[in-house]
Write a structure and sequence with these properties.
Radius of gyration: 20 Å
Strand order of the largest sheet: 1-9-8-5-4-2-3
Number of helices: 11
Largest sheet: 7 strands, mixed
Bound molecules: pyridoxal-5'-phosphate
Strand content: 15-25%
Number of strands: 15
Helix content: 25-40%
CATH superfamily of the largest domain: Type I PLP-dependent aspartate aminotransferase-like (Major domain)
Oligomer: single chain
Number of domains: 2
CATH architecture of the largest domain: 3-Layer(aba) Sandwich
CATH class of the largest domain: Alpha Beta
Order of helices and strands: HHEHEHEEHEEEEEHEEHEEEHHHEH
Distance between the termini: 24 Å
CATH topology of the largest domain: Aspartate Aminotransferase, domain 2
Low-confidence stretches: none
Length: 364
């Protein structure tokens, strides 16, 4: 079976981890500081604050921006559940705006009508590795005095008008979960040019401790370890190469499946460089489940990102959430992710194309 994801861990990562283990400093220490510095430089921002996961990075970012009870944050319902949950953790209220059916990212033309006097922030997601339409998102934020927090968990190294994700809004949040474009095992990071926000996030990350034994706010233990940062430092050096291989795999897949009826290949926005965290097609006509079964039975792993919108999850229904997002619901019924990761061989991508062609012949 060709897996849908497979992290590429090399000798350098292993050596770096062993060095940390032998150093005696295995919690947050010098490797985390070095990783923060290098990641900030890579993204092109002044500050980076590492965290224990992408989820805790998002949680910290929202708190660091001063968002809390009674505030609304506009986001997409077509994402991993952490996107909405981090707003709930802060006691704020997610407001879900529908997606653009071509890119699967929040539809910028629908954001302004969702703004109320309680709205404090916009939280776009760069889904599958494709940047959201940040020009319009930042325009709405400017006009309505809102903070922009990018959920860049899936978009390390992606570009929008030649600028990196994580540098496009007030803050960016990345995940380093093993399926992501680069990994630290578990891990996350916040990127920002705003020194005050970075300081707030650092304090909140370590139990609200401003100086030793002086706890000024209710904080958390959301620290990254030096073991994780040691992996991240090697992975960061390889990130552009990993992304290039993802893009080459995606290009091959698109070239060979674009004429197959019943399947819509990914659309890349003008001005965007997509880093293909996922290569996600649409299978119409109510055939997605059958199509997926055929692929799985013939050795091609798949994923559904995501089979249900956030507001339709039990958690959100129990909290009385609802939203009018027909494009998100339609996408949830039709999307199917194929393997695109840098660990694929030429034979793997050829096999994926062959199995898809056969599946389409049999089912459509
Ligand atoms: C869009 C999105 N946001 C947030 C997260 C949360 O990151 P993590 O799994 O590192 O907590 C993820 C990762 O799965 C994600 O895909």
């Amino acid at each position: 079976m060709i897996p849908i994801a497979k992290p590429l861990i090399g000798e350098e990562e292993i050596d770096n981890v062993v060095k940390v283990l032998k150093s005696g400093m295995i919690a947050q220490g010098p490797r985390v500081a070095e990783f923060e510095e290098k990641f900030a430089e890579y993204v092109g921002v002044d500050h980076a604050v590492a965290a224990s996961s992408g989820t805790t990075a998002l949680h910290l970012a929202i708190l660091a921006a001063g968002i809390g009870k009674g505030d609304e944050v506009i986001t997409t319902p077509f994402s991993f559940v952490a996107t909405g949950n981090c707003i709930l953790y802060a006691g704020a209220c997610p407001v879900f705006v529908d997606i653009d059916p071509l890119t699967y990212n929040i539809n910028p033309s629908k954001i302004e009508e969702a703004v109320t006097d309680k709205t404090r922030a916009l939280l776009p997601v760069h889904l599958y590795g494709q940047p959201a339409q940040m020009d319009e998102i930042n325009r709405v934020a400017r006009d309505n005095d809102l903070v922009v927090i990018e959920d860049a968990a899936q978009a390390h190294g992606a570009l929008y008008n030649n600028e990196k994700t994580g540098s496009l809004g007030d803050m960016g949040c990345f995940s380093f979960y093993p399926t992501k474009n680069m990994t630290t095992s578990e891990g996350g990071i916040i990127t920002t040019d705003n020194e005050e926000i970075a300081d707030n996030a650092r304090i909140l990350r370590a139990h609200g401790e401003k100086e030793r034994y002086s706890h000024v706010v209710l904080g958390y233990n959301f620290r990254m370890t030096d073991i994780a940062a040691a992996i991240g430092l090697s992975q960061l050096k390889k990130l552009d190469g990993f992304n290039q291989r993802r893009q080459e795999n995606a290009e091959y897949l698109t070239e060979h499946i674009k004429e197959i009826p019943g399947i819509q290949h990914p659309h890349v926005l003008a001005g965007a460089e997509h880093v293909f965290h996922q290569y996600t097609i649409r299978v119409g006509g109510g055939k997605r489940e059958e199509f997926m079964k055929f692929l799985n039975e013939n050795g091609v792993g798949t994923g559904i990102h995501y089979p249900i919108t956030l507001y339709q999850q039990k958690l959100y229904r129990d909290l009385n959430f609802d939203a009018d997002c027909p494009e998100s619901e339609k996408a949830a019924n039709e999307v199917l992710s194929l393997p695109v990761h840098p660990n694929l061989s030429v034979e793997d991508v050829e096999k994926i194309v062959n199995v898809i062609s056969t599946a389409a012949n049999e089912l459509f």
